Known about the structure:
- The protein is 72% helix and 0% strand.
- The protein has helices at 3-21, 25-37, 53-67, 81-96, 103-126, 130-154, 173-193, 197-217, 220-239, 244-264, 267-273, 284-295, 297-303, 312-320, 336-373, 376-396, 406-421, 429-435.
- The protein is globular.
Amino acid sequence: MSLTALIYLLxxxxxxxxxxxxxxxxxxxxxxxxxxxxxxxxxxxxxLPDLRYSFFLMVLVAASYLLRHGDYRENxxxxxxxxxxxxxxTLLMLVTYLWALDPQLHLDTxxxxxKVLLFVVVAFKVTDAAWKLESVLGAYLLGIGYLSFIIxxxxxxxxxxxxxxxxxxxxxxxxxxxxxxxxxxILVFYALFARRRWQQVASVGGLAxxxxxxxxxxxxxxxxxxxxxxxxxxxxxxREKGLKGQKVKILAGIVAxxxxxVYLADEVFWTRMSTMTEVSASQEVETHSRIEYWKKTPExxxxxxxxxxAQTYKILSPYYLxxxxxxxxxxxxxxxxFEVLSEYGYHGLLIFLGYVVSTFMLARKVRKRLRExxxxxxxxxxxxxxxxxxxxxxxxxxxxxxxxEITYWLPMFIAAFASxxxxxxxxxxxxxxxxx
Length: 436
């Protein structure tokens, strides 16, 4: 058995014991690592016992939670605005089954979606203390750090970019790059403000690997996501009154991260990024077609105004797109926004937008409370989580990610953060949320 497989098994069984004896949050940490490390996609997986690890972990977490559910009564998931939008989206998905173009495919998709939501709800419920949230974020960063390390080891696999390495949701370069990008704002925060020296050192090392992975993945969408999330972070940092010393520290940190990125970037990367505004003759068809993919969605809705359920765009693409744009006879839309629009109509897109906006509004409410309390550490941590969520949204604009787990993990992190930091003295966070 390889050393990597042995370490994985030791961590896995230690986590199982901790989940059963102490807290379901340890099972949440294991599930995060299982999803991000994606053992079935690694060479050392052949050395592991053949088990359904993710399914086993969810059963284990659910059992541990049920045994201790009384300890988590104050964490009321339905008190948070995202939950209403998620409930509406779930109801819409269930109803859409009645007119889905492929009912069996749609049913399978709903089941997978409900599993994602189950994890999100339980993870929120059990993440009810600051140390637990720090642990959840630590596992998230560790998993992405491992992916980045593997990408560094492997290098580009062809066509000037890395392909074939990713999380359990897929190994597409754009999807993996979007995932990696979400870690960068959080790593910058910890590199600057972590309360322990080893955390700062680890964050700086993790930042170097994630930036390098982003360059090797060579995704234009992820690069745009990084730029916009960084601008968002800077904008709100410098809108804060006072905090001169912290602002200088953040500015220096961001400049250092930018210099590191420029140092790591090579000619292959900058050549591809230049096509965001200047399209060469050989790339013109690909870039033009992606925009045209999106423009075809309203045409599909004319025949299916309520949407057509899971993978509507892919199913209908042969009837709306020229043959030369298709791959294997079909084509996906390459945008989560248009994925929602084609599958659930304009009303579905409004619900999804409500979910997105409500997450930002909740984070804004928490930042206001932290500002009043003078808690600058958690104020900037909240802003880093917001920036990470924005990076995911920008990246999702160029990939299909409606059913991807990270699309729901990041808002869960923000909701758990709010639950912890909106608590009044002896007053549940839900009551504080409704009163403010």
